[in-house]
């Protein structure tokens, strides 16, 4: 009885905390459909007296149309997601299943690179991208986005949770590393692959700093830069700002709603063995 009461109590606490966390999001959605006179109305009117689509139409069809920003962000996020997931899995297989001298030391050194603040690399990357001619192009965001230390770590931990006997049996049957990787390890790692894909998509979709530093042409701007431009252009249009923010967050919600089951499976699976 005490255990049941504790579970009910913890559930209620989590519900209240979740409600507080989701309230700003609900206010943002509500404000995007309100008239300007209702924005600062107190007490807050959660349901607009008259729903208007004017502000959402301005976001998609106005001077600062989000269509091109969406296309740019989708292009960058999807290419990085596919590339980073594949390359991270390939590297993780090497660190988890191929024995070579200094493997663990090399992996620890690789992980230590996570301690380097990304901002420190802006100047070297700027010089490099300018030299090779990809500055102010989407390649300046795509190429670095294909490599993720966290992705290698996540996939390695998941591969370590797969019994060694499975790959040893495949070797006995004459399979090589590439066949084992593509036909055995990847199918078993679907939850971890989905988790990494979702997380990587989120990182690249929300990437503001790199886009700000390496993109100059407005036609190349991503959604975060487009939102910043919209705010600067219409700095007193709070309804429009909320509509623009709502538009920018929709893909993230869809990705997490579709893949939340895989995120839990992938993270729990990756934590089994280290």
UniProtKB/TrEMBL annotation:
PROSITE patterns: ABC_TM1 (PS50928). It holds the Pfam family BPD_transp_1. The keyword Transmembrane helix applies. Residues 70-259 form the ABC transmembrane type-1 domain. The keyword Transmembrane applies. It is a multi-pass membrane protein. Keywords: Cell membrane, Membrane, Transmembrane, Transmembrane helix, Transport. Belongs to the binding-protein-dependent transport system permease family. It is found in: Cell membrane. It comes from Paenibacillus alba. The chain crosses the membrane at residues 12-30, 76-95, 107-127, 139-159, 180-199, 238-258. This is Carbohydrate ABC transporter permease. InterPro entries: MetI-like, MetI-like_sf. Signal peptide: none annotated.
